[in-house]
């Protein structure tokens, strides 16, 4: 069981997944909040049945899965609905993340949480690691990866904590503006550092 948890975060397009996968190659278990948040509203889940009870069948696709864009519309129109949804799903996501950390066999765990600081989830981890890039690069990478408009990317970046705020809160920072080879060296150095920290915890 892994007792030491490193919370990995970074804004959209910063390269969190690339960094996480480099840790996974070194044998470290990943616990991904995004994957868990999809699982807790999967077909047949308690999360989905509560959502349908609250919003009605209009939030379902014809195959019985959640219609995410319809749900997104409903919660963005009405702030109280977004709060209701967060109150339902956040405890479920948190509980599942901690459960997966307990089951992990590696020396420490990387918990990937895009909104680590925004949702106060840094309180669950022993150390925080921020993948940092400039807002301009963030925008470029996200537009080419997700084929979304510049305005959409700006809105997403604007809804997340500012770069300065994240930098001031993070214990460790990986600057991801360079080449993948440089990234590998940084991850390996941090991996050795986390192994030491986890053996002392």
UniProtKB/TrEMBL annotation:
Keyword annotations from UniProtKB, A to Z: ATP-binding, Coenzyme A biosynthesis, Cytoplasm, Kinase, Nucleotide-binding, Transferase
Biological processes per GO annotation: coenzyme A biosynthetic process
EC number: 2.7.1.24
Keyword Acetylation in record: no
Pathway named in the protein's UniProt entry: Cofactor biosynthesis; coenzyme A biosynthesis; CoA from (R)-pantothenate: step 5/5
GO cellular component: cytoplasm
Top-rank lineage group of the source organism: Bacteria
UniProt cross-references to SUPFAM superfamilies, sorted A to Z: P-loop containing nucleoside triphosphate hydrolases (SSF52540)
Residues that bind ATP: 13-18
Catalytic activity: 3'-dephospho-CoA + ATP = ADP + CoA + H(+)
Locations listed in the record: Cytoplasm
Transmembrane segments: none
Keyword Nucleotide-binding: yes
InterPro entries for the chain: Depp_CoAkinase (IPR001977), P-loop_NTPase (IPR027417)
PANTHER family (alphabetical): BIFUNCTIONAL COENZYME A SYNTHASE-RELATED (PTHR10695:SF46), DEPHOSPHO-COA KINASE-RELATED (PTHR10695)
Family stated for the protein in its record: Belongs to the CoaE family.
HAMAP family listed in its UniProt record: Dephospho_CoA_kinase
Record's protein name: Dephospho-CoA kinase
